[in-house]
Amino acid sequence: MPLPQLTDEQRKAALEKAAKARHERAELRDNIKSGKVSLEEVLNSDDPIANRMKVSALIESLPGYGKAKAAKIMEDLNISPSRRIKGLGARQREQLLETLTK
Predict the structure, then answer these.
(1) pLDDT tens-digit map of 47-90
(2) What is the DSSP letter of 3?
(3) Quick check: pTM over 0.90?
(4) DSSP 46-96
(5) Topology of 16-100 in CATH?
(6) How far is the first Cα of the chain from the last one, in angstroms, to the nearest whole number?
(7) Which position among 8, 70, 71, 91 has the lowest Cβ density within 10 Å, counted as fewest Cβ atoms?
(8) Sign of CA dihedral 64, 25, 88, 72
(9) Do residues 55 and 71 make contact, with C-beta atoms less than 8 angstroms apart?
(10) Which residue, 47, 64, 52, 61, is CA-closest to 88?
(11) Can you tell me whether residue 15 is helix, strand or coil?
């Protein structure tokens, strides 16, 4: 399927929208890292920015967790590396909370 042909204005608007979304996700990760936002708040949020974040990015945002620990946790809980928060099932959310809040 070919990409749609966009006018210069449409392309500029799309780039601005993408940059804004990246900035908001980075801000959310910073808030998680600093403790302003809890893991439970993010997992139970209806915020589209939180819901579109990858689970691996969420785990890596927590203090003391990096790529290796995040990958191990996701493998142990059978969560796909490409899974986003919105795509988690209720059981996976429970297991993730239980594992990360020990």
Answers:
(1) 999 999 999 999 999 999 999 999 999 999 999 999 999 999 99
(2) P
(3) no
(4) --HHHHTSBHHHHHHHSTT--HHHHHHHHHHTT--TT-BGGG--HHHHHHH
(5) Helicase, Ruva Protein; domain 3 (1.10.8)
(6) 46
(7) 8
(8) negative
(9) no
(10) 52
(11) helix
